[in-house]
Amino acid sequence: MLDSIRLRVRVDRHWHDSVLECLRAYIRIPNKSPAFDPHWEQHGHMERAAQLMAAWCRAQPITGMTVQIRRAPGRTPLLLIDVPGTLVGCVLIYGHLDKQPESHGWSPGLGPWQPVECDDKLYGRGGADDGYAVFSALSAILALQEQNIPHARCLILIEASEESGSIDLPAHLQAIGSALGEPSLVVCLDSECGDYEQLWCTHSVRGVLDGRLRVQVLSEGVHSGLATGLAPSPFRILQQLLARIEDPLSGEILLPELQVDVPDQRCLQLRAAAGSLGSAITAKLPFVEGARPISEDPGELFINNTWRASLLVTGADGLPVADAAGHVLLPEIALRLSLRLPPTCDPVLAAAAVRSSLERDPPYAAKVRFELYESIGGWDALPLAPWLERSLAEASRRVFGREVRHVGCGGTIPLFRILRAQFPDAQFFVTGVLGPQSNAHGPNEFLQLDYAKRVTECVALVLADHAAMITAGAGALASVRQPSTRNRQEFPRV
Ligand SMILES: [Zn+2]
Q: Residue 420 pLDDT > 80, yes or no?
């Protein structure tokens, strides 16, 4: 049985003595993801960040551990740490080391590449998203080993293209191949938390559909006194077309292809989480004075944000800026449309439905074209195995004295679909430290240090329970595979 007090002391000491210094050095490196630094390879920052983390990992006293930086031409590196287990079976722990760009508006004294510790927060780009992950993973394993608690083989995979849609991850996974083994548990340390008071698990993410809707009525702009009442305005046609997709009063998405039945279990989980957070769900948004959220029911808001489709117009072509506009019937307008899709919505069917709704039977036979940029599906975790559900609940109670919360994520993270495709039967424990004000993609990003350490403890507890489940026999979990010889294979050096 894992001693909770020793666990806390060990994790706190390790973070204090070893982790923080390396995390500060990591924040100083401007290793932006390839989407934000196309010349990342020449700049060498990504390599430095990977080398820094690899050197730290190698210095940890873990017997038999191998640490390698895997490379492939033109692709970002992948840090892979293989910790042998004392049991059969395998756990994959995921994090990433690439970063978002600087962003503007950092408070005086703070900056993206400048680690600053204040009020138990470590400010700087990439500490919370997602630099802490590798440290958390190895700290948890070390804490288990110190108490002689068995664990399965742990493969820690730290990629460097997550902020660019994990573009390089599938190729790395393919290159590693069967040496990945068959993890029965995937621990993903790159998600959100609703507050810093309990363990938060992410059970789903939404998809996204992006495109440009163009309406042409005239071949050139015409004096509005001459043209209005004779020709329709492209703006009015756009309003009609958008109303085919979204109820303009309620914001509800009307196409059946973009609606899913929210599973009862997910509704219960989201309403329970909403009960914990209450109005804090919307308090994070910068409403202007007097403006209010879409609903007063926190449960509805959570479900809206994570399990229902929504439409945004995020850009426009053909509209002059207001101060430069004349009395002109504009010839054409194009709008950039961004739709979030429910986790289980089929992105291909959704795209076809959106296009045909927008293009069919155009009002006044105007020229209407919807150009699809991308349609990416979401992700919904498999139902939690009983052992994991219990383990997460107990971990939150032991570490925080509060209930675990399971929530969806309103954004889109391709990573989960990639991992699910690779490990279709694995259980997922998805958590993170991106809580209120941590502002991962904006200014003043911080890592809440105490919370990161407590999440580390939770990871240790779940790894211990995973091992106990294996020891107790596979009967407790149908998805646990029998030991495979592949699990013991050495990685080819790249
Ligand atoms: Zn991240």
A: yes
Whether residue 222 sits in one domain with residue 194 = no
Query: How many domains are there within the chain?
Result: 2
Angle at 230 between CA 227 and CA 234, to 5 degrees: 75
Distance of CA 318 from the midpoint of ligand 1 (Å): 35
Residues 28 and 67 grouped into a single domain:
yes
Pairing, β 66-70 against β 78-83 = antiparallel
Residue 278 resides in a domain: no
CA of 312 to the centre of ligand 1 (A): 23
Return the CA Rg of the chain. 25
87 CA from centroid of ligand 1 (Å) = 30
- The model's confidence at residue 112, banded by pLDDT at 50, 70 and 90, is very high
- Which of 355, 376, 397 finishes a domain? 376
What share of the chain has pLDDT > 70, as a percent?
Answer: 96
CA 181–ligand 1 middle distance (angstroms): 24
- Residue pLDDT, tens place only, 164-187: 999 999 999 999 999 998 999 999
- CA distances for 226 relative to 215, 237, 323, angstroms: 20, 19, 22
User: Of 357, 376, 395, which residue constitutes the final position of a domain?
Assistant: 376
